[in-house]
Amino acid sequence: MNTQTKMHELVTSHPVVLVMKGTPQFPRCGFSGTAVQVLKACGVHDFYAIDVLTDPELGQAAKDYAHWPTYPQLYIDGQFVGGADIMREMYQKGELQAMLAKS
What's the pTM? Predict the structure, then answer.
């Protein structure tokens, strides 16, 4: 299975996926830490995380899959949402909570 297929399967087989540096318990950059905090603030404590530091090939596949050059990357129900700044803005407007409630 190529990495694009694997990426597609991961983001479509889990309701919430965060492609990040590190893990939810130990984020390895500030943006990934922010993304985890935003998800927790939305009441999402159980989500699938892909650590690009331990799987750089899948990390590159994520960039190609989303056409997004940076991490973190949030997917809800297989749809790319955005990175930490977009997540924070959507959270402040209540949009992220609404998306997650439907998931």
Answer: 0.96
**Domain 3-98 indexed as CATH 3.40.30.10:** yes
Q: How far is residue 19 from each of residues 3, 29, 71, 93, measured CA to CA in Å?
A: 14, 12, 7, 23
Give me the phi and psi of 76, to 5 degrees please: -125, 125
DSSP output for 6-74: HHHHHHHHSSEEEEESB-SSSBSSHHHHHHHHHHHHTT----EEEETTT-HHHHHHHHHHHT--SS-EE
pLDDT at position 31, please?
97
d(CA 103, CA 101): 5
Low-confidence ranges of the chain (pLDDT < 70): none
Phi, psi at residue 12, to the nearest 5°?
A: -95, -10
Q: So where are the chain's domains?
A: 3-98
